Description:
- By secondary structure, the chain is an alpha/beta fold.
- Helix content is 36%, strand content 19%.
Amino acid sequence: MKKKLSIIYVNFSPYDNAGRILDYLISHFPLIIHFSYDHLRLKNGRKTNILTVYRNGKAVKSQTLIPIRTPEFLRFPSLPLVAFLIFIQTYWYSKKILHGKEADYYLSVNAYTSWIGNFLRDRHIVKKTIFWIWDYFPPGYPDIRIQFLRWMYWKFDKPSLTKTDIITCINRNLIKLRLDMKVLDPRRKYTIIPIGTNPIQSIPTRPVPILGFLGMLKSSQGLNFIFDSLSAIHTKFPHIHFEIIGSGPEEAQFINRGKNWKKFVTFYGFIESENKVDEIIKRWSIGLATYVPVQSNESYWTDPSKIKAYVSQGVPVITTDVPSFAKDIEKYDAGIIIPYGDTEKFLCAIETILSKKVYYAQNAKRLANKYIYKRVYRSFFSHENKQ
């Protein structure tokens, strides 16, 4: 890649380095202006918005941006103000840092922040914008507040899709969906760039059986099913432990559910360092991704970064048939797909994997090797990449 290139990268905590995308950018761009926004205001997470400037692989500037911390009941009503602050701070600091120059690229994964990128491009702050589409948020969510927020989000989706210079998706389903919705131009070419993996060199021995969960603490991720099954799991596997990494809007609810299982359940909260997350995950025997199979669950459309993190550490997966990536798990025998809510099949899956843990762990690592981030992310800038 040409050494002169610069990029503005905007994402949301805790996904800034999902699939090691930030690591890739740092190793390939002499100048990165990274905006990390805590729009969910995680209770047990990093409680600020942060701007970090990287030059030649090193962070040379880190600045706390204006945060908004509100009581729980104001979380949703305050989101328009949060969105305005994201817009004004991204614009102001990008212009200030670049001193009248143009960044070569602007990369984001969200329709609203991609719209901001196009705004910057039209004012000659960036040259090209990239919308790496991660999500589709289906209508019909049971919480009317979420319904309204999704409606607002879609107001930015079509303008971002039609005006962004480079459109890429994490899977083919997202391209097909938006083509069917007639919000993508069928004459354009769209690259598939999945969430990357960072495979472990060798799989460690795991003498203590540990179930693990990484991700946002909210109901759609399937944590209620896991907690509903804890008694049966503990009865059948009395020495097994359950560890949870992450924060989210329903964290207090799940911590409360875990109070009676303090010797069995560990909450780590939000961990910013991907290396620290990997150190914990590589001890796990099984990674859990029991998504709830409801139509409003966006996990049907996304590429699950949590599963990519599991298999990167050679950790087999128990999941439900919600994400399209479940087909890869099945194809590589890197875990087991179970019906949501079926505790008996959940227990059988645990028993099967623990009885053949080396086999499943090797298959998980083999699957991870298919998506090594240093290789798959080259497609973002393939016309610039001379490697």
